[in-house]
Amino acid sequence: MEVSPQLAAERQLTNGGWATLVSARTAIEAKVLVTERMRPLTMGGGQVVHQIGVPYHWGEQGLSTGDSGNDLFGVVMDPNVHIQESKVATCDIRPGRRPRGPALVEFVESRRRAAGVASGLVPPGGRAPVEEAD
Questions:
Q1: Single pTM value for the model
Q2: CATH 2.40.40.20 fits 2-98, yes or no
């Protein structure tokens, strides 16, 4: 993933090191490239918004393997050609590798709670989120 030098300094990311991106859907990990190509945006009120470049075509198989950026997004298909339409999402970035197994689920749930987003857990045999299953 590509990040600006400013974001790298703010989040203690190291060029060539691992970082974890987490959205309301899941978390992925990737190697960090600190580059001037990614520039922070300054909004009207002076708020700084950082951008992160993520190649979203990678996956488990092929010449270049790893977590897929597509996993961060919900499935939104272009109606004409049926390819992934969403290309922008909000996320958090942290240094280091992502958790695995049940720890990944709890990590994502903890970030959802911190962001005020409803649980994404589904009860066994059910389709409703856990908080709606009662």
A1: 0.82
A2: yes
